[in-house]
C-alpha cells in the first residue's frame, strides 16, 4: 500500500501524516487533535521526535533543544496566520507581523545555493521550515487552504482537487470516522 509510506506511526497508536500538501502545513499538523484540548498531542516534543519527523518528510536533521523550541514556535506562528484563512477569515496583523519577523530572520541567515532560479540553503532545520512557510505564502492559493471538517482534528491542508471538494485531512482517518458515526447514528435511530 502506497499510503503507509506517508504515515509515521507512534507507540500510543497515533500517527503523523504528510497529508497537508505542503511541508509548512505538515509541520502545523505535528499537533494531533488540536481542536480537542483533552486529547491534543504534540508530535515533536523533543530533539529525537523532531529528527524522526524531519527524516519522515525527507529533510536531513541534526537538532538540539533550541531547534525544537524554534520549530514549535514557528509551527504555532504559521498556524495562527494560516488557520484563519483556512476557515475564510483574516489573520490578525499582529500574528502576521510575528511570522514575518521569523521568516525574514530565516531568509537573512540563508545562503544562496543558486542565483537564478533563486535557491536558498537554510542555516538549519527551523530556518528550512520557515523558508517553506515563506514559499507556502508566496506560491499557494489561499482559496485552497482547508481545515479538516472533523470537529476535533484541526489539521490543515491544501485542497488540490480539481473541483475543490476535499473536506477531510485524510479519508482513511477523519473521513472514515465520520462515515462510521453516521452509520452508527442510523442504526441507533432504527432501534428506537
Ligand atoms: Zn482530520
Write a concise synopsis of the structure shown.
This protein has 6 helices and 8 strands, in the order E-E-H-E-E-H-H-H-E-E-H-E-E-H. The protein is an alpha+beta fold.
Structure overview:
By secondary structure, this protein is of the alpha+beta class. 47% of the residues lie in helices and 12% in strands. The chain has six helices and eight strands, in the order ββαββαααββαββα. The strands form four sheets. It has a two-stranded antiparallel sheet. Helix 4 (93-109) crosses helix 5. It is globular. Zinc ion binds at residues 148, 150, 153, 155, 168-169, 173-174.
Element layout with pairings:
Layout: E1 7-9, E2 15-17, H1 23-28, E3 31-32, E4 41-42, H2 47-56, H3 65-86, H4 93-109, E5 111-114, E6 119-121, H5 125-139, E7 145-147, E8 156-158, H6 171-191
Antiparallel strand pairs: 1-2, 3-4, 5-6, 7-8
Helix pairs in contact: 3-4, 3-5, 4-5
Bound molecules: zinc ion (ZN).
Count the strands?
Answer: 8
What structural class do helix, strand and pairing data support? alpha+beta
Q: From the alpha carbons, calculate the radius of gyration and give it in angstroms.
A: 18 Å
How much strand content do the residues show? 5-15%
Unreliable stretches (pLDDT < 50, length at least 5) are none
Mean pLDDT: 90
Bound molecules: zinc ion
**Main sheet record:** 2 strands, antiparallel
Distance between the termini: 41 Å
Number of helices: 6
The helical percent reads: 40-55%
Order of helices and strands: EEHEEHHHEEHEEH
Strand order of the largest sheet: 1-2
- Quick one: overall form? globular
Amino acid at each position: 500500500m502506497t499510503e503507509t509510506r506517508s504515515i509515521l506511526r507512534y507507540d500510543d497508536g497515533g500517527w503523523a501524516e504528510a497529508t497537508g500538501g505542503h511541508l509548512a502545513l505538515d509541520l502545523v499538523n505535528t499537533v494531533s487533535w488540536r481542536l480537542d484540548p483533552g486529547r491534543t498531542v504534540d508530535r515533536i516534543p523533543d530533539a529525537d521526535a523532531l529528527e524522526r519527523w524531519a527524516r519522515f518528510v525527507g529533510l536531513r536533521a541534526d537538532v538540539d533543544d533550541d531547534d525544537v523550541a524554534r520549530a514549535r514556535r514557528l509551527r504555532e506562528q504559521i498556524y495562527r496566520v494560516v488557520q484563519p484563512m483556512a476557515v475564510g477569515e483574516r489573520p490578525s496583523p499582529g500574528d502576521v507581523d510575528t511570522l514575518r519577523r521569523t521568516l525574514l530572520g530565516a531568509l537573512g541567515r540563508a545562503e544562496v545555493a543558486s542565483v537564478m532560479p533563486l535557491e536558498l540553503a537554510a542555516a538549519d532545520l527551523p530556518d528550512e521550515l520557515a523558508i517553506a512557510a515563506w514559499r507556502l505564502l508566496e506560491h499557494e492559493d489561499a482559496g485552497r487552504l482547508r481545515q479538516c471538517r472533523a470537529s476535533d482534528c484541526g489539521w490543515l491542508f491544501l485542497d488540490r482537487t480539481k473541483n475543490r471538494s476535499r473536506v477531510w485531512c485524510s479519508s482513511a482517518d477523519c473521513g472514515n470516522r465520520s462515515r462510521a458515526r453516521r452509520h452508527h447514528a442510523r442504526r441507533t435511530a432504527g432501534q428506537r
